[in-house]
């Protein structure tokens, strides 16, 4: 058994044992009459244990080590060897990110328990038969719940963990599966690099050596750099981790930000987002979730500096880069009215022409005839033009156009944009500004910087 994995399991066992002792002491200190009442109630009831693992996914005791030798994989047709692709998989209220480059693969988190099948189906669709790296950013169920499905169905070259012990059955089952299958186990350390393949760098920015008392703040945070394009994946790291990473002197500037903790106010601080200065912000979040994610304050902060994509609106979001340009492909158009894929291409020269600290939003060009788009804007003439390229007219009642800081908003009354039609709306006179077009239910339809 891996020595570090052994110690984590021992710590979990100690926590469980101390919990049992505490419960026994509590029971002994109760009045006799109360203890008898509890005994009578227990005698009348039969309890079923809580089943946290998927019934069809038992830990495979008979798995041989040979099964986990990683075969050479042929890159999927949609991803050439010179391209790095990062997929933000729609797993509802949770995280799962799949990275592929030069025939090598990495999975970061796997969503809730029932989402393991969703992640597995996504991998099978891409003809993935094994995983070089699997990363669990931290032990919360919405990040590692689906791991057991993955571990039982795919050979894994190395498993990387935050190293923060957690007493949940989900976490314990995951560790036991790793041990049973003899998967190399490693605790992430700040400053180290993950060797996925030559040509791309993956740097670990968190956790720090001294662990935080808050589980989320120990999330594994990684920065992926491929040529001139970079991704920052925050897990559920919050304000404490953000401040610590920046304070340690790490460069957090990134083109694409996977927003921490589902865009909760526990993270994405103003100074941190300013330091990252993302062009694209990805929020992995479930529709109508119980937590109110993304929180309005954070959503507005992100929208003021970047183009925001959300898995609850856009489905699975894939970003492919050759190191100088990148393409954003979404499973669906925000608003749910279209189920086809839309592609947005942003050139590096365009997005890097703005000075540091300025608001940066990429110019977007649709490669398909689908979806309302902003086709031009004039700051001098205070004018923005939007176009409907589809074959039927669209009612724009309730749609809004906003400027960069949401200082000015134009809300459409009852207005119908004809098929393949173009309409102009007044904008606001600034030296530099971004026009953002919103559906009537509030999600971002398109944006253009002028």
* Domain count: 3
Tally the beta strands.
Answer: 24
Provide mean pLDDT, rounded: 76
Report on the biggest sheet. 9 strands, mixed
Spatial order of strands in the largest sheet: 6-5-4-3-2-1-13-14-15
Q: Quickly give the CATH architecture of the largest domain.
A: 4-Layer Sandwich
Protein name: Putative hydrolase (Metallo-beta-lactamase superfamily)
Keywords: Hydrolase, Membrane, Transmembrane, Transmembrane helix
GO molecular function: hydrolase activity
Domain Metallo-beta-lactamase: 93-295
How would you sum up this structure, described in words?
By secondary structure, this protein is of the alpha+beta class. It folds into three domains: 3-44; 65-351, 4-Layer Sandwich (Metallo-beta-lactamase, Chain A); 373-449, Immunoglobulin-like, CATH 2.60.40.1260. Helix content is 23%, strand content 25%. The protein contains eleven helices and 24 strands. It has helices spanning 3-28, 32-44, 116-125, 141-144, 147-153, 169-180, 239-247, 270-276, 296-303, 311-314, 348-351; strands spanning 84-88, 97-101, 104-108, 131-136, 156-161, 185-187, 201-206, 221-226, 229-233, 256-258, 280-283, 307-310, 317-321, 325-330, 342-347, 373-378, 383-387, 394-395, 400-402, 409-411, 416-417, 422-426, 434-438, 444-449. The strands form five sheets. Strands 6-5-4-3-2-1-13-14-15 form a nine-stranded mixed β-sheet. Strands 7-8-9-10-11-12 form a six-stranded mixed β-sheet. A four-stranded antiparallel β-sheet has the order 20-19-23-24, with no helix packed on it. Helix 3 (116-125) packs across helix 5 (147-153) and helix 5 packs parallel to helix 6. It starts with a helix and ends with a strand. 43% of the residues are buried.
